[in-house]
Design brief:
The complex is a heterodimer.
Chain A (H helix, E strand, L loop, with lengths): L1 E2 L3 H15 L1 H11 L2 H4 L16 H9 L2 H32 L3 H13 L4 H14 L6 H25 L3 H9 L4 H12 L1 H17 L2 H6 L8 H9 L6 H34 L2
Helix pairs in contact in A: 2-14, 4-14, 5-8, 5-11, 6-8, 8-11, 9-10, 11-14
Chain B lengths: L1 H47 L19 H7 L2 H32 L1 E2 L3 H9 L6 H11 L6 H8 L16 H26 L3 H9 L4 H30 L2 H6 L11 H10 L4 H21 L1 H8 L1
Helix pairs in contact in B: 1-12, 2-12, 3-7, 3-9, 5-7, 7-9, 9-12, 11-12
The chains are: A mainly alpha, B mainly alpha.
C-alpha cells in the first residue's frame, strides 16, 4: 500500500464516491422519517430539515403489519441455522484440515460443488421433502434448509482457520494423555474463536437474507420471516413507502452491525489467503 | 524385544483410533450433505423424467417416466429466451460491478485518513439481503415519486416519467442496477486483497523510472491482480447466474418475461404452474451451464481451492 501526496484530498474523493454509493441507504432513512406529503411528492426534498423528521412511520409499520412476529421468526431461524451449521462445519472443517484420506477429499469436493447450486432449484426437492414429512410452515424445516446452504460454505471457511493453527499444540496435549476430542474441544476451539465468530456472523447474514426457502416452505403468515413479510408490502395497491422503508431500516440494522463486526476480518482473511 | 512388541500394537491402535476420530468428526457433515444436498439433487434428476403436471407432489413417482420434459423444455423458445436473459443479466451485472470494484479497490489501496471507515462503508451493500436491495431500488426507480426519475427530469435527460420496472425495454436494466450495487463489494474486497500483496518496491522502482500512473497500473497492478480478478469474475458470474431474490422481488420475471432468467423460470414452472418435471429440467440445464463455466475456469479455481 502506498502513501499519497495529498492524503486529505484523497479522503475527500473517496468520501464523495462513498456518499454516491451509499445514497440508497440515505434515501431509505430519509423516506422513513419524513411525512407522506413530502415522500409522495413530484419534487422530493433531497436534504430534509430536521423539523420535519418524525418516527411515525416506524410506529405505523408495526401497527399495520406483524413486524415483531416476523422479526422474531427470522431471529429464531437465524440462530437455529447458524448454530446447526457452525457445529457441523467446525467438526468437519477440523477433520478436513488434519486428515487427508480419499473420503475427506471426496466430501471436500462435494461441499465445494454444492456452492454452485441455485437456491431456486434446491427448493423444489426441499418443498417435496417438507410436504412428505408434514414440515410445511415449520421453522425447523426452514433452519435445516438454511443449514444446507451454510454447512458447505462454513466448512471451507473453517478448514482454512484450522489450517492456520499449528498441529504441535494438540499433539503436545495428546502426548500428555489428552484424547484427540478433548484436545479439539479444549485447545483448538478456544484458539479458533475469532474464526468461529467470523464464520457465525457470515452464516447469520446468509440466513437472515434468505428469501426463497422462507417463501416456499412457509405459507402461514404467522410463520413468515422478515424477508417474506417485506415483499408482501410490494404487491399491495398504493404501497406505503414510508412504513416500508421504516420496516427496512429495522430489518437492516442488525445486518449493518454484524457486518461492521465482520468487516476487518473479511479484509484480513482475504489478504492472508492471497499471500499464501 | 518386549519393548518393541508392546509399542507396535499400541501405535497401531492409536492410528485406528485416529482414523475413527477423523471419520466421526466428518460424519455429521456427510449426513447433512446426503440428506440436504445429495438426495435433493437425486430428486431433481428423478423428477425431470416424470411427465405431466401434478398438484399432488407425493404422487410424482407414479407419473409416466420418459424424456418428454426434456423434449418440451428444450424445444420451447421461451427456454432459450430465458437462457439469453440469464446471460444478459449475468454479463450486464459482472462487467460494471467489476469496473466499480476495481475503481474502489484502486482508491482504497492508499494510505489516507479515515481509510478504515470508508472501506467498511464502501463494502456495506454486500450485507444487504437481496430482497431488501430490490425493495429500496423499487422505491428509488418508482415511476411517479422515485428520486431517480426526479433527478433525470431535473437534469433534462427525460421529458416523461420512465416506468422502469413495468416497461419491457427497461425492466432488465432496472433489475441489473440493484444487482451491480449488491455485487461490486465482492470485487472491491478480492481485488484490494490482491493489490495489497503486490510488493511496494515495484511501484518505487517504477516511480524512479518515471512511469506514468496508467503505466504503473497496466505494468504492475494489473499483472499482479489478474489471477484473482479472473477468479472473482467466475465466482461472481456464477452467483449472478443463479440469483433469484433480487429479480423475483422486483418483477417476478415480468413484464412479458423480460426479466425471466432460468432461475426465475424454474421457480415459476414449479410453484406457479406446478410443472415440477419441467422445472427440474430447467434446473438441470442451469447446472450444466454452470459446470461448463467451472470447467473453463478450472485452472484458476484449482489454484484457489486445492
Amino acid at each position: 500500500m502506498r502513501a499519497t501526496r495529498r492524503p486529505l484530498l484523497w479522503t475527500a474523493g473517496v468520501a464523495l464516491l462513498c456518499a454516491l454509493l451509499l445514497f440508497p441507504f440515505y434515501w431509505m432513512v430519509v423516506t422513513a422519517v419524513l411525512p407522506t406529503s413530502q415522500v409522495l411528492a413530484r419534487e422530493p426534498t433531497l436534504i430534509p430539515s430536521l423539523a420535519d423528521v418524525s418516527l411515525r412511520a416506524f410506529a405505523a409499520a408495526f401497527e399495520r403489519k406483524p413486524l415483531a412476529t416476523w422479526l422474531a421468526n427470522s431471529l429464531i431461524v437465524t440462530v437455529g441455522a447458524t448454530s446447526i451449521s457452525l457445529v457441523i462445519a467446525a467438526l468437519a472443517g477440523y477433520s478436513l484440515s488434519r486428515f487427508r484420506t480419499r473420503a475427506q477429499e471426496l466430501t471436500g469436493l462435494t461441499l465445494l460443488l454444492t456452492k454452485m447450486l441455485p437456491g431456486s432449484l434446491i427448493v423444489i426437492p426441499f418443498f417435496i421433502m417438507a410436504s412428505t414429512f408434514h414440515l410445511i410452515d415449520s421453522l425447523f424445516a426452514l433452519m435445516l434448509a438454511n443449514a444446507a446452504v451454510g454447512v458447505p460454505f462454513a466448512t471451507w471457511l473453517l478448514k482454512g482457520f484450522f489450517d492456520g493453527i499449528p498441529r504441535d499444540l494438540e499433539q503436545a496435549a495428546m502426548i500428555d494423555g489428552c484424547s484427540h476430542l478433548s484436545a479439539f474441544v479444549f485447545i483448538i476451539v478456544p484458539l479458533a474463536r475469532p474464526g468461529l465468530a467470523a464464520c457465525a456472523i457470515y452464516l447469520a447474514i446468509l440466513s437472515w437474507s434468505d428469501f426463497v426457502f422462507a417463501k416456499t416452505l412457509i405459507n402461514d403468515q404467522a410463520h413468515w420471516t422478515i424477508t417474506t413479510g417485506m415483499v408482501s408490502f410490494i404487491g399491495e395497491h398504493g404501497i406505503d413507502w414510508s412504513a416500508l422503508m421504516a420496516a427496512g431500516v429495522i430489518s437492516l440494522a442488525p445486518m449493518v452491525v454484524l457486518f461492521l463486526l465482520l468487516e476487518p476480518f473479511l479484509v484480513s482473511g482475504m489478504t492472508s489467503g492471497s499471500q499464501k | 524385544m518386549p519393548a518393541t512388541s508392546t509399542r507396535a500394537p499400541r501405535r497401531g491402535s492409536l492410528a485406528r483410533r485416529e482414523r475413527i476420530f477423523a471419520y466421526a468428526m466428518l460424519a455429521p457433515a456427510v449426513v447433512a450433505v446426503f440428506a440436504l444436498i445429495a438426495y435433493p439433487m437425486y430428486l431433481i434428476v428423478a423428477i425431470s423424467f416424470r411427465e405431466g403436471k401434478s398438484l399432488n407432489f407425493l404422487a410424482l413417482g407414479s407419473r409416466p417416466f420418459g424424456l418428454g420434459n426434456y423434449q418440451s423444455v428444450l424445444t420451447d423458445p421461451a427456454t432459450w429466451h430465458s437462457v439469453y436473459v440469464s446471460f444478459a443479466y449475468t454479463f450486464g451485472t459482472i462487467v460494471p460491478a467489476f469496473l466499480l470494484g476495481l475503481a474502489t479497490a484502486v482508491l482504497l489501496n492508499r494510505v489516507f485518513p479515515l481509510r478504515r471507515w470508508l472501506r467498511s462503508l464502501i463494502l456495506l451493500p454486500w450485507a444487504v439481503p437481496g430482497v431488501m436491495v430490490s425493495i429500496v431500488f423499487l422505491w428509488l426507480f418508482d415511476a411517479s415519486f422515485g428520486v431517480v426519475n426526479y433527478l433525470l427530469r431535473t437534469a433534462g435527460l427525460i421529458s416523461a416519467d420512465v416506468s422502469w420496472y413495468t416497461n419491457e425495454s427497461t425492466a432488465l436494466v432496472a433489475v441489473i442496477i440493484p444487482t451491480i450495487w449488491k455485487s461490486y463489494p465482492f470485487f472491491t474486497l478480492t481485488l484490494l486483497a490482491a493489490m495489497q500483496s503486490i510488493p511496494a518496491n515495484l511501484y518505487e522502482a517504477a516511480a524512479v523510472d518515471g512511469a506514468a500512473a496508467w503505466e504503473r497500473f497496466l505494468l504492475i497492478t494489473w499483472p499482479g491482480i489478474r489471477g484473482q480478478a479472473t477468479l472473482a469474475l467466475v465466482l461472481n458470474g456464477l452467483w449472478a447466474f443463479r440469483e433469484f431474490d433480487i429479480i423475483y422481488a422486483a418483477t417476478g420475471g415480468g413484464p412479458s418475461k423480460a426479466t425471466e432468467t432460468l432461475g426465475i423460470r424454474a421457480y415459476n414452472e414449479a410453484f406457479g404452474y406446478f410443472y415440477m418435471g419441467r422445472a427440474a429440467v430447467i434446473g438441470v440445464l442451469m447446472l450444466a451451464i454452470a459446470l461448463v463455466a467451472v470447467l473453463l475456469a478450472r485452472r484458476q479455481l484449482r489454484k484457489e481451492f486445492f
